[in-house]
Every structure is written in structure tokens, then in C-alpha cells.
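User:
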Amino acid sequence: MTEMTPKEFRSLVRGGTWTDATEMVCRGYAQANLAIVPKEIALEFFTFCFRNPRPCPLMDVTDPGNPHPKLVAPQADLRTDLPKYRVFEKGELVDEPTDITRYWRDNLVAFLLGCSLSFEWALRAANISFRFLGAYSTDISCIPAGIFHGPMVVTCRFVKGTDEAVRAIQICSRHLFSHGAPVHIGDYGKIGIKDLYSPDMGRSDLVGGVIPPQEPDEIALFWGCGVTPQAVAVAAKPPLMITHFPGCMFVTDKLSSDLVVL
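Assistant: Predicted structure:
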């Protein structure tokens, strides 16, 4: 899966062959979070993303009723090309399908938001030692826009050593479409996370189902996360929001290296 092209991978997904997480697929290509809302509130959601670029960096926005993201993968279909989705109605999670064709309407607008899985390729290329723990809801409030409000969700990675942590921050600071630099470093309690070893979602790097303890030379770095719109859907209760399932991202045709800020 690592060496597949995005088009080849999306073909597997569209055919129902792959319904799992997208970590380590399509080496070097940028992945994206998905949020779909009715056009009546699309401008409000666009404004929400504009005001909160760290958790919600905008990569592409579709025209109403058009499921094809023209800027990042014009031949893709957002109704079928993600391994798994979530459907929220008035703040309630009502379905987790592998295809949203039956939910699609002519008034829906899709937003693709950058994903931190994209900058992990750059960290690996720089030989930075890190491990991903998962995603957590925080007590950091997003800047509201219209009906949209709620907490920021973050991801946590342990990076080994001060030098590598500094280098990781430098690298990620150039990847603004993939959340940029961390929003917090160190004490997780200061951002409202109660238990770092019980992520709300997206647990990874496990041994026997348990996250190995933080080593003395490991530093906890926290990035904004594109799962934030799902927490916002629960808080704001829009009539409809369709998202990706955490970890099951949309793979774009864009190389992460082509999206960095020089």
C-alpha cells in the first residue's frame, strides 16, 4: 500500500477492498480530513475554518452538489473514495458507512482539511524518532463562526530528545496545510487532557493494546487535528455534517513536499 499511487489506492477504496486506516499508504502524498455540510451553512463553516487554521487548514472546497475536489484530486469522488465515514444529524452520530452516495444531495458542500499524517513522511525522511498516541479533545475553545463552535481536538506524538523535537517543530512549521507547528508542548493537563494513555480516538503504536509509558527523553508534542469538526458537530448540532471516520482519510494527488511553505 505504501508504494501505490493515490489513484490506485482510491480505486481499491471505491471498490470496497480497503476499509481501514490510511496511515502509511501512498508514500509522500498529502492526506485530508473531510467535512460536508449543506450550502446554507457552508459560508459559516468556511469562516470557522478560516478563523481556526491550526485544526482546520483548508485544502479544497467543492461547489454545491459536486463531489469532485478540483484542486487536489479532480478525478476523485468524495462520496466513495474514503475508507469510512461518519454521519451526524443535529449533533448525533447516526451512521458510519463506507459509502455516502445515499446521503449525497445537490446542496452539499465538501471541505478538505489538511492532515498531520502528511507531515509524518517528512519526519521520517529526517530520521526523527516519534510515536503517535492518538487524538484527544481539549479545553481549548475554537473561535466560533455562525452556528459553529466547540473544542479543539489535538493529536499527540512523543518525539525522542530535545534536538529532534526542535527539528520536528521546524519541519512541521513549513507544513501549514498539515496543521503547522504544535499548538502545545509538554504538560497535557494544561489543555484539559485527563489521561494521555486513553486517547479519545486514533490509538496507535500499541503493545498488547497498551501505550508504552513515556520515556524520560521523550517530549510530548500536540498538533491541531482535523477531527475537530466532529467535536464541533456534536457541540453545534448542525442539521447534517458528514465527515471521515478518524484515521480513514482522503488521499489527494498532491505531494506533501509540494505544499510546504519555503
